[in-house]
Amino acid sequence: MWIENVVCTPDQTELFFSELKSKVAKAKAICATCPVAQECLEFAQSTEIEYGTFGGYTADERKQLVSN
């Protein structure tokens, strides 16, 4: 399963669920190195997760992907 191959760790939760630009940037940098970022993004979209950074995209960015 893809979740077993993520680069992020449970102790980084505050980065992935923060609104602070500096923390969001750090989360996105981690996602950029993750081999399963696409699967993570698809998971967030298919389950309609409304918060957090998944697959390198914030919730607002994911909404924009869907609307385009």
Describe the protein's architecture and organization.
With 68 residues, the chain is mostly helical. It has a domain at 36-68. It is 51% helix and 0% strand. The protein is built from four helices and no strands. It has helices at residues 13-16, 21-32, 37-46, 59-67. It starts with 12 loop residues before the first helix and ends with a helix. The mean pLDDT is 96.
Helical proportion? Answer: 40-55%
Task: Write down the secondary-structure element order.
Answer: HHHH
Radius of gyration: 11 Å
Report the count of strand segments.
0
Shape: globular
- Helical segment count: 4
Most strands sheet? none
Jot down its keywords:
68 residues, mainly alpha, globular
Secondary structure: elements and pairs:
Elements: H1 13-16, H2 21-32, H3 37-46, H4 59-67
Short description, anyone?
Helix content is 51%, strand content 0%. The longest helix has 12 residues.
